Amino acid sequence: MSQPILETRNLSKAFGGLIAIDKVDLKIDTGKITAIIGPNGAGKTTLFNLIAGVYQQTSGEILFNGKSLKHPPWYARAIKRGLNREILGDKLQRHVSAHMRASLGIARTFQHVHLFGNMTVLENIMTGQHTRSKYGFFGAALRLPKARREEEMINLNAMKYLNMVGLGKHANLNALSLPLGQQKLLAVARALATEPKLILLDEPGAGLNALEKRELSDLMKRIREIGVTVVLVEHDMPLVMGIAEWIIVLDSGRKIAEGTAAQVQKDRKVIAAYLGEETDSAEG
Amino acid sequence: MILAWAKRKWTYFAIAALIAFLVLIPFDWFLGRYTSIMIFVGISTMVTVGLCLLMGYTGQVSLGHAAFYGLGAYFSAVLSKTYSLNPWLAMLIAAIATGAFAYIIGYPIFRLRGNYLAMATLGIGLIMWVLFNQLSQYTGGPDGMHGIPYLSIGGFDFDTNFKRFYLVWFFCLAILFLSQNIVRSRTGRALRAIHGNEAAAESLGINVTQFKVKIFVLSSVYASLAGSLFAHHLRFVSPQSFDFLSSVKLVVMAVIGGLASIWGAIFGAGTTRFLSDEVLLGLNQYPQLDIIIYGLILMLVMIFMPEGLFVAIKSGTLWLRVNWRNLPAIMNRKRKELPNQMKYILGRLLFARLWRRTEP
């Protein structure tokens, strides 16, 4: 059995007194499409934000490819060299920050599309290639050969991802002039352009019509084929049941069930969570 | 075919025409009497380009840029006069020191956003102004410093306006080209991404804070270079040139030029400079009138043309080119709509929000 690409151990997050995520243990298998479902307020988006590094966990640990995301590399190195934790200050940026996680290979999309409205469709995706290129202010200002080479590569890759989601002919339109369905596809393409190992899709199907949803699930299958693990949060049950190979159910911050679509559908706790039944006997 | 080629390369033609125009300006038979003003336009353009990068592209407000402008000027003045350093070396040291200062204050400042950031930069501007006034054993206090040496290269002194015009515009155009390249690159996209949506930018691996600080440093270095040129041009610096009002003037220049257009900076700086030096100077009996006028311009541009006057004129000419055939019909329709339009304009005036929020 291969190593899970993402693992959380005892992961908790509290906002003041409200416990949004309560000791969640997850294993996301490499190369599969995993769905996280649950009623409103179950903590799905909070979980995504924890994995992507937007929030810092209250306790517990996240492992990506077997490595903990608790400390950035420089912190670990400093500890190894014998620097005292008190000197470094535990309050100092402890976890691997969001932009570093992106370069490690965790990409995400947002519930509200969050495209860059001041750019064209193509530029949005080119921005996604940020971590896969290196040149900085000097290279850019003086147009060094390295910068030009990289820029050519960025352009090619961006067109590749744009064609992958079928928006090739809209490359030079303003990103926000697209209809919502295509905006969502563009957001996925932008996340893909970071060349991730794991992509987190936050409600990709919300607000799409039936046709667009079918396109979306086709796209997710194609993403899996190029070797990217897909995790999605979704409310649309037919979409989830049709595509997800593994389903994790959250309810009020806790994991209540996981399994294949058939297993989850039969689970009493899941039915109870969605229909609001009493579950005294189930807890034992 | 030649026409098609010309159409494709029209930016090169535009730039060549601009440079030719600039080269001819200081000659007496052309626009010689504007040489002195055009030097200041060049200097202001340098600062404005930095502000455009910071405000227009990255979406971070700075109301204290005169501080860096002044730092550059005073570093150059003190080093080259009091310590009789080579002016070029003084200029270099000034740029490095100002950049370092911006870097140090950048990290704490860019934890702030929006209005709070504006307040913090305002504070820096005020503090620097007080320091220029009070450190009088170095800066000469409110009376300023006289007798700063000219710049010179190997015995060639930049001792007349004619010569300094080319010096200043060489620097100015160099900065414009470099900035243009930055804007159309990976770095420029990262900056615009930060303006567009910080959370999304972060999720794509862009180190938002670091980029904000870097562009802040870059714009402060531009301002410092401009300040040095200012000091070596006028041979006199005083705190009045770097007070809060001059920070506001710089913002006005950036706004008129169109915050998100590099070449608009020349237009913004030019309009503002000519307005204050040519038009308003005639109204000497109302000494503070220019402040009111700048305030009005800032308000009106922000309400009606948030992309800036330059961009508005550009899109206006485009509209005219597309619609000039049915112009009479359109004018006729507009005349009928005029009462409604007036209501709309009144509404915009009453309910406008000056700063559009970038973050939800």
What does this structure look like?
The complex is a heterodimer of chains A (284) and B (360). Chain A has 284 residues and is an alpha/beta fold. Chain A is built from 13 helices and 10 strands. Chain A has a 6-stranded mixed beta sheet, with helices on both faces. In chain A, strand 4 (59-64) and strand 5 (67-68) form a beta hairpin. By secondary structure, chain B is mainly alpha-helical. Chain B has one domain (17-270): ABC transporter involved in vitamin B12 uptake, BtuC, CATH 1.10.3470. Chain B contains 16 helices and 4 strands. Classes of the chains: A alpha/beta (284), B mainly alpha (360). Chain A binds chain B through residues 52, 54, 97-100, 102-103, 107-108, 110, 114-119, 123, 126-131, 133, 135-137, 139-143, 147, 150-151, 154, 190-191, 193-194, and chain B through 178-179, 181-182, 185-190, 192-193, 195-197, 199-208, 214, 218, 260.
Helical fraction of chain A equals: 40-55%
Largest sheet of chain B: 2 strands, antiparallel
Order of helices and strands of chain B: HHHHHHHEEEHHHHEHHHHH
Q: What's the architecture of chain B in CATH terms? A: Orthogonal Bundle
List the topology elements.
The complex is a heterodimer of chains A (284) and B (360).
Chain A: E1 6-15, E2 18-28, E3 33-37, H1 44-52, E4 59-64, E5 67-68, H2 73-80, H3 85-88, H4 98-104, E6 106-108, H5 121-128, H6 137-142, H7 145-164, H8 180-192, E7 198-202, H9 210-225, E8 229-233, H10 237-243, E9 246-251, E10 254-259, H11 261-266, H12 268-275, H13 280-283
Parallel strand pairs in A: 3-8, 3-9, 6-7, 7-8
Antiparallel strand pairs in A: 1-2, 1-4, 4-5, 9-10
Helix pairs in contact in A: 5-7, 5-8, 7-8
Chain B: H1 2-8, H2 10-24, H3 35-57, H4 65-82, H5 87-109, H6 114-134, H7 136-139, E1 145-146, E2 152-153, E3 156-157, H8 161-183, H9 186-196, H10 198-203, H11 208-234, E4 236-237, H12 244-257, H13 264-279, H14 289-304, H15 309-323, H16 327-351
Antiparallel strand pairs in B: 1-4, 2-3
